[in-house]
Amino acid sequence: MYKNIFNSLREAALVKNNQNTRRIKGEPVPAPQKPYPADSQLIALPEPDFLPDHEVSFLELMELRSTIRLYSEEMLTLKELSYLLWCTQGVKAVLPAGVTKRTVPSAGARNALETYLYIDKVEGLASGLYRFLAIEHALLPVDTSEGVKDRLRKGFNKINMFDECAVTFMWTAVLDRMEYYFGGRSLQYIFLDAGHVCQNLYLASYTLNIGCCAIGHFNDEELNQELDLDGAEEFMVYAAHVGKIR
To answer: Is the pTM of the predicted complex or chain greater than 0.85?
Structure first.
């Protein structure tokens, strides 16, 4: 099974030209962010310009970066969450043709990832599922109803980390954004981009004494369903738990 998937990806990646991409055909450019209802009550996050700077030794950061799987009951502040979101998907500029320049690299500046969050321990925020709107630097509440944590829990295998952490980051990919430009190489670039984003989360977390654990082993179908994704045009790619260190 996996060999067949690998061979299919390899065959698509070996195509030397992209005459069939929608960009070459002159079709409309995909939006750089998923839409949301005009009457949505967004939650503004502290502006990046006003976030505190954290001086660290670069070599120390490289040496001491580690995966943390145990978290305390201490809550994150809204500024800390804003800082982590800015470091992982912050928009520095919105350019023509669906291009956004962000705090992480992305193939062709396509930035196909969306950030969903299960927030459990952040001061001033109700527990629930949110989506980060990178262009507005704001949170869009998706589901804060009772039981959402239990439904999302089915998507994870290490339940203790999901239960104990302050926030679970869930990155989904909107295939259209990458495929528009790169055609058959899109999946390779999407997964590379996800690695860039999560590495920034690790490094940013360290500067705040926040623990981080990347999660690649999750239950795709359950999480796609709970996030209302079709699993083909948009799908789960990566996740991470963060929380204050015990």
So the answer is: yes
